[in-house]
Specification:
Elements lengths: L6 H8 L3 H8 L7 H23 L3 E9 L2 H14 L7 E9 L4 H14 L3 E5 L4 H12 L4 E4 L10 E3 L3 H16 L5 E5 L6 H17 L5 E4 L6 H14 L3 E5 L5 H10 L6 E5 L3 H8 L5 E4 L2 H15 L15 E3 L4 H5 L1
Parallel strand pairs: 1-2, 1-3, 3-4, 4-5, 6-7, 6-8, 8-9, 9-10
Antiparallel strand pairs: 10-11
Length: 342
């Protein structure tokens, strides 16, 4: 049996004699199974406590870099600040570099500035471009790990992605929409914030592929590059509504929902179903008001906890690689909103 602690320490932890521990470790007879299990549990406990001791007094500085509407950056900031105290005995601090829209050169310059100043890790929501991937490579070369959140930059040196399976989220949205539109033949409207955001691209791809599989005659109208901003969404959706009188449902992978709904209201139009993403306060209000049918949500705190664990593992503060698994997709409707909040 593998072990890495002195026999005396294991015996103290298990509350048995050193001779008993020796027999268990070497597989000798004469030890009851319950006692052997007690010794194995003691070794497991010591392994875990050793990791805690390594963390004691360790300080980590994280840099959160995001291109996203203010409502989502506020949601992410709140989730991070709620999660960081749970990572004790390690101590985390965070710096925020957040804009609703970055020029590509400015975003890269910000990442390069972090590389020069130093950081223990970067949590990044950014477009999937070659320039961003190159900046991630420069950070990694300086031993600054990057974890992408919500949307990925897969062909880069980032050490992990945290978030939901975005393609599966799009498929889920399509499944819900088909239930609501029924036999009506109206088109489906998909509004995304940017063509370079991998997460939204995967959501849209999943949505379209599922609609084409289950309802191939259904028309899908796409609007891209809105930045997830209400004013832009309002203008772009108004233009579509002027020429497409038969919109049956809306899927919004990237935000701007108040603007989208305002465009419908201005021409007195309604839809049978509306799927949004993430429980920002504005989406919560729209859900309760019946303007959004469902919100696809995931546990941002779990995402950020996974990012912190991956960064600690990179620096050898905890054992293993700690590669996070995709966060579960939650379908939030008004009756279960309180349960999600709890």
């Amino acid at each position: 049996m593998a072990y890495s602690h002195p026999i005396r320490e294991i015996a103290q932890q298990a509350g048995v004699s050193e001779a008993t521990v020796d027999r268990v470790l070497h597989g000798r007879v004469g030890v009851r199974e319950g006692t052997a299990a007690q010794v194995r549990q003691a070794i497991s406990d010591l392994d875990r406590q050793r990791s805690q001791l390594r963390l004691s007094g360790r300080r980590f500085m994280l840099d959160l870099v995001m291109e996203t509407p203010r409502r989502f950056s506020d949601l992410t900031r709140a989730a991070l600040e709620a999660e960081l105290p749970t990572l004790r005995p390690a101590v985390f601090r965070a710096r925020y570099h957040v804009r609703e829209a970055w020029e590509s050169e400015e975003l890269v310059a910000e990442l390069d500035g972090i590389a020069r100043r130093g950081s223990h890790g970067v949590v990044l929501k950014a477009p999937d471009t070659t320039a961003v991937a190159a900046a991630i490579a420069r950070l990694t070369a300086r031993r600054i790990p990057v974890v992408t959140v919500v949307t990925d930059v897969p062909q880069s040196a980032r050490i992990a992605y945290v978030g939901m399976d975005n393609r599966a989220a799009g498929v889920t949205a399509a499944h819900l929409v088909t239930q609501w539109v029924g036999e009506s033949r109206g088109a489906l409207l998909v509004v995304t914030s940017g063509r370079f955001f991998r997460g939204e691209e995967e959501r849209e791809t999943g949505f379209r592929s599922e609609i084409h599989r289950t309802d191939p005659a259904r028309r899908i109208i796409g609007i891209a590059d809105t930045g997830g901003l209400d004013a832009v969404c309002r203008r772009e959706v108004a233009a579509v509504l002027a020429s497409a009188p038969d919109i049956a449902a809306v899927y919004s992978p990237g935000g701007g929902n108040r603007g989208i709904i305002a465009a419908f209201d201005e021409v007195g139009r309604r839809y049978r179903g509306y799927i949004a993403h993430d429980l920002a306060e504005s989406n919560r209000e729209l859900l309760l008001a019946g303007r959004v049918s469902a919100v696809l949500h995931h546990d941002l705190r779990a995402d950020l906890r996974g990012a912190a664990h991956a960064i600690m593992a990179f620096h050898g503060a905890i054992d293993g690689s700690h590669r996070p698994r995709p966060t579960a997709i939650q379908i939030v409707v008004p009756p279960n909103l309180a349960a999600v909040d709890g």
